[in-house]
């Protein structure tokens, strides 16, 4: 989780920096932080005053989430995601939760709550994962 926090600080996102680390058998197989696809936009440099274009949930409309980037990087490099464990500084949103379940990740640790950050009633991503057999739990540090 310390590494995930370090990675978060590399994010160019104006609003919220998130980092994720994917591990298997105690080894790191992939890492990621939130941001638009490489070589497209650096939100903090392009829109330092206004922030980047927002989607309906007031999230960056250009960025991949840290979890998405970690999973895609693993796929690109042929790492075996099945049975892996994900550490993320912010609990997964529902879209990432669907991706996490489908990719075969079995365990998720998160530091901060996405619902608390967004002012949502519940952490639907966490609930979704726990309901369908991916252990998703709070790890403060
Ligand atoms: Zn952005
Ligand atoms: Zn997400």
Automatic annotation (TrEMBL):
Protein name (record): Cytidine deaminase
GO biological process: pyrimidine nucleotide metabolic process
Similarity-based family: Belongs to the cytidine and deoxycytidylate deaminase family.
Active-site residues, as the UniProt record annotates them: 67 (proton donor)
Any one GO CC term of the record: cytoplasm
Signal peptide bounds: none
Keyword annotations: Hydrolase, Metal-binding, Zinc
CMP/dCMP-type deaminase domain mapped to chain residues: 1-123
GO molecular function: dCMP deaminase activity; zinc ion binding
Cofactor dependence: Zn(2+)
């Amino acid at each position: 989780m310390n590494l995930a926090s370090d990675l978060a600080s590399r994010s160019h996102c104006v609003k919220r920096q998130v980092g994720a680390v994917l591990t298997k058998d105690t080894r790191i197989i992939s890492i990621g932080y939130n941001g638009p696809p490489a070589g497209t936009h650096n939100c903090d440099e392009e829109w330092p005053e206004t922030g980047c274009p927002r989607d309906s949930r007031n999230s960056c409309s250009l960025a991949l989430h840290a979890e998405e980037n970690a999973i895609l990087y693993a796929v690109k490099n042929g790492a075996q995601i099945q049975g892996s464990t994900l550490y993320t500084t912010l609990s997964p949103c529902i879209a990432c939760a669907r991706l996490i379940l489908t990719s075969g990740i079995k365990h998720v640790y998160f530091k901060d709550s996405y619902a608390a950050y967004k002012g949502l009633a519940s952490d639907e991503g966490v609930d979704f994962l726990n309901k369908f057999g991916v252990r998703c739990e709070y790890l403060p540090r």
